[in-house]
Amino acid sequence: MSLRISSDFVPQFLAGMVVNFEIAAIALLIGLALGGLLGLARLSGGLLGGAATTLIGLMRAAPTFVVMFFLLNIIPADATLFGLPAAPSPLMTVALSLVPYSASYVADNGVEALKQMRAGSPLGALLFLPNVTRAFFVLVMSSSAGAAIGVTEGIAVILREAEQMPTLGDKLVLFGIGILCFGIALQAGFAIVRALQRHLGRLALRDRQG
Amino acid sequence: MRLVVRVAAMFAGMFLLIGAGARAETPDAALAKLIDDARREAATPGTCSQAGLDRLVRIFCDQKLRTGVREYYPLFGTREGQTRSGYDVDVARAVAKHLGVEPVFTRVNAASRIPLLADDKIDLTIATMGHNAQRDSQVRFIRPHYYQSETIIVGPKAVPVRDWRDIAGRTVCVTIGNNSNAQIVAHNARLMLFDEAGLLPDKLKDETCTLAAQDDSFFDYYFTEPGFADRFNRKFGFAQLPWGMAVALNGSDRLARALDLTSQIFHRDGVFLAIAKENRISTGFLEGQRQVWSSAACNTDKGTSDPACILPALNTTLEPTRYAKQVAEFEKWVEARTGIALQLPMFKTMPAWLLFKAGIINSLVLVAGALAATLAFSIALGAVQSSRSAVIRWPARGLVIVLQSSPVVLTLVIAAAVAQAFFAYSSAVAIGAAIVALGLMNGSNAGQAIAEAMHTLRTERGSASIPTLELLSRAVSRSATQIVSFLINAAKGTPIASFIGAPELLSALTDITSFASGRASTYSLLLIFYVVVVIVVVWLCGKLRDALERRQVVA
């Protein structure tokens, strides 16, 4: 079997994967800001805490793919904010659709980290970092949903290339290359998470011994 | 005497009939008479200042034919400075010349071409206007139609699409509100929606879209660009829509009749065809019409009212539901009280309602199937990953790593591609493939948790003391939290099945909004539906987790 891949596939695919990381980074940054605020509001208790808990629950239940189409259709193309154009680009729409997940994840883990901190375990609180790193890689994988609305991310490039291939065998080889590339990125990410956890564990041990 | 009178009357009648028949035998003679009469009337002193004149007479009074044309529709109506060009513009010039008057142009667009006629700002509109049955109550369309567009599927030359059979399961880029979208949906294609047609060629060029559907009159312009024509071609056409010149409903009877006859003559004599060739637009329809109007049966002054010669208007009216009126009243009631322009198109027409109903049922089937598949795959993969045989264990672990490394969209596409290799594409196949893909993705993660629980149980309790099935059962109980978490994830992931054409609710509503209004309300409803479904799944999974954890305590 000779797999015929167009000459510009590899650079386009790599550029597409960069878009996946870009989307994940934006979603995580907004998620950290929003999730941090919601987490603090939840810890404050009372009416505000109740509202924050409800909102976090709803965000946790919102499917990313539906949120993406919701945002795409609810925000007019000529929307403005303070006189400036406010309609998000397709890439930004994907990133925003991942915010309910990232914000609720950050809020849940942030609350846990603050509880650990208050309980006198700063290292327990630091587990927040590997958890956020894990969320980042989940976001990278989820950002492939952008292919559905025309964002040229990694999977969109693969699917475009696959459209030109005549046999299922060729397509499966191409899909395998995609899985390998995303797999390497994901496993590298999880290796970072594990290394971070081990490092924190060692710090905890040294702390106890000291 | 009576007999003589009767015979004389009979001869007189025959003479009149023959005479009348001779006068109106050809469209040319009929038109010439109409024009002569109108000109004579216009030349009569005092006539032109009278109110309520038929527009044909007034055109001869003013010696002007006020025509509405488009200015930004390439190949049909464009304007650069004072120079107008395009098929519609040239048709207007030819009509005016045939009547012996000067054309005076007014810019119109899709929204203004009918109101300007009604307000008597123009006499005639020639502005890429499709003739559908709804518009018959707003304007008088000139028959025969002066052009016909159709929706065409355009894509790269290398992509093998010949007809509807090759469309199933593919994504087609379309513009929102296009009437032909419903037809594409009916052939199991997925839609990618865009607000403006102008975006489609760019999306084809940057390969965001593999296929795009739009009027051939729109793509005609792009096919004149060598770069575009080299890469893309027309795959096939459908949803033919006749275009009509139109005049106002009131006070235009004689003008409409004169234009009917003019249009008929232009078809017969190849005038339209020559203008189309000059403007490099598709000529297939005009060639067919030339044959029709050259035939003896149609080339008469009665031809324009003969159903065998003229084309019917396109009927785009969708069958309303039984409760469409009540839904419309409810929408008004909400708007009056809240200011929110709620629109519920899925309850107002039968095609939308059927899509909506099927979408909800398919979504629930998909959620139930994804939950069952996740549970089944998690137990199966948990068991094989815990096998004492390395030959079974390592391939299972390899499969789990592959599944964990594959982005969700890619896993779905692979499942769909494999399914289509074995079965012909259908909604059931797409739903089945999505269930398997979602089950494998989430089941692999949950299975890993079960395998880890098995490992800890073996470490704690010794290797041979517990039968494998019981150990697996305890491992399932121990990993309840993880299993529940991935079950919820599976339910949340079901809408993504629309990517491979599974007709669940997201897919159904996208299809509905492609030919109906109310996108904001529709997608808000969709979000609420899925959030409620996930909340119910979370609640049910909570019960399952409690049951599993209680069992673990008992064990």
What does this entry look like structurally?
- The complex is a heterodimer of chains A (210) and B (555).
- In chain A, 78% of the residues lie in helices and 2% in strands.
- Chain A is mostly helical and 210 residues long.
- Chain A has helices at residues 9-44, 46-61, 64-74, 90-118, 122-126, 128-142, 154-163, 168-209; strands at 80-81, 84-85.
- Chain A has a single domain (30-209), classed as Orthogonal Bundle (MetI-like fold), CATH 1.10.3720.10.
- In chain A, a hairpin with a 2-residue loop joins strand 1 and strand 2 (84-85).
- Chain B is α/β, with parallel strands linked by helices and 555 residues long.
- In chain B, 57% of the residues lie in helices and 12% in strands.
- Chain B contains 21 helices and 13 strands.
- Chain B has helices at 2-23, 27-43, 55-62, 87-99, 115-118, 181-186, 199-205, 216-222, 226-231, 253-268, 271-278, 284-294, 324-338, 350-385, 390-405, 408-422, 427-461, 468-478, 480-493, 505-515, 519-554, and strands spanning 64-69, 72-73, 77-80, 83-85, 102-107, 124-125, 139-141, 147-156, 171-175, 190-194, 211-215, 232-243, 246-248.
- In chain B, the strands form four sheets. In chain B, strands 10-9-11-8-12 form a five-stranded mixed β-sheet.
- In chain B, helix 14 packs parallel to helix 17 and helix 15 packs across helix 17.
- Chain B is elongated, with a radius of gyration of 34 Å.
- The model of chain B is unreliable at 11-24 (pLDDT under 50).
- Chains A and B meet through helix 2, helix 3, helix 7 and helix 8 of A and helix 15, helix 16, helix 20 and helix 21 of B.
